[in-house]
Amino acid sequence: MGGKLSPFWKTPDQKESEGKLILPRQLDAEDEIANYASINDSATSCAPCAGIARQSCVNCPTCQGTGRIPREQEKQLVALIPYGDQRLKPRRTKLYVGLAVTICLLTTSLSIFFLFPRSVTVLPAGLNASSVGFNATTASICLNMTNMLNITNNNFYLVTVVQLDVEVLHQSLVVGKTTMKTLLNVSPLQSGQIYYTVASRILDDNTYNICTWTKVKVHNVLLHIQGTLTCTYLCHSEQLAFEDYQYVDCRGNATLPHPLYHRVS
What backbone phi and psi angles, to 5 degrees, belong to 62? Predict the structure, then answer.
């Protein structure tokens, strides 16, 4: 019983003291691994394997296990993101795409609706005033007429009238013509009016006798008016043709101006 103790046999107090010495070393190795998560304020996935964890790790080929990368390679290296990372998942993509498509379609539809060319209506409004003169030597009738022309703009933009060409015919013969350079701006969805005067000379014996014969109570001359109106809009020029038939009293010396009216065809 009084022999020597085996070197492998230790008292409980000795085992407890040795355990206290071994435990701090393991904790120091784990803390060292955690401290390499962020170095010099730069995010990196390179962390040195130390202690016990070194048996299941290999060194990073970029940082060689130091947890640092050279600053000159900062813009050359590419960070890999896991496929299941939340940043790779689209957020409200369908909503944004649908909203963009809707806005584009709405803008296109409104542009087509407001900019689509509509008709510009030209309607003769009749005779406003006239004066008649006779030449017994040549048996001719000198007739000056002032007519009205209504212009209706059915577009959503401004229309400008730049020129008016008119011809007056009597029995298929041109007895008068005029060209008027004008500048009339017709507002969107509004109407405008133009006055034009044509000097005509009728060389016909029968017409001269009808107009000067006192026994006849009605002295009317039928005139055929043809014209072309040139207007511009949206950098585009368009010619609008119109025509009208008018009875003009050729017995009296003058026809006084009468109130404006709109004739519906």
Answer: -85, -50
Strand intervals (E) in 136-213:
140-153, 159-170, 173-186, 191-203
- Tokens linked to 78: 């590419």
pLDDT in tens, 50-107: 544 445 667 777 777 777 778 787 777 777 778 788 777 777 888 999 999 999 999 9
pTM (predicted TM-score)? 0.60
Q: Are 221 and 232 in contact (CB under 8 A)?
A: no
Distance CA 175, CA 226 (A): 12
Question: Residue 8: which region, alpha, beta or left (left: phi > 0; alpha: psi -120 to 50)?
Answer: alpha
C-alpha–C-alpha distance, residues 75 and 28, integer Å:
34
Tokens, residue 33:
């691994």
Residue 25 structure tokens = 């070393």
- Is residue 177 packed enough to be buried (19+ CB in 10 Å), middle (13-18) or exposed (0-12)? middle
H-type helices in the chain, by residue range?
12-35, 93-115, 205-212
Residue 90 sits at φ, ψ, to 5 deg, of -65, 140
pLDDT digits (tens, 9 = 90+) for 165-178: 999 999 999 999 99
At CB < 8 A and 24+ separation, what contacts does 91-99 make? Answer: none
Pairwise CA distance, residues 261 & 126, whole Å? 8
Measured in whole angstroms, how far is the alpha carbon of residue 170 from the centre of its chain? 50
Nearest to 245 by CA among 143, 139, 172: 172
Name the residue among 224, 228, 174, 168 with its Cα closest to residue 198: 168
Specify burial of residue 34 (Cβ count, 10 A radius: 0-12, 13-18, 19+). exposed
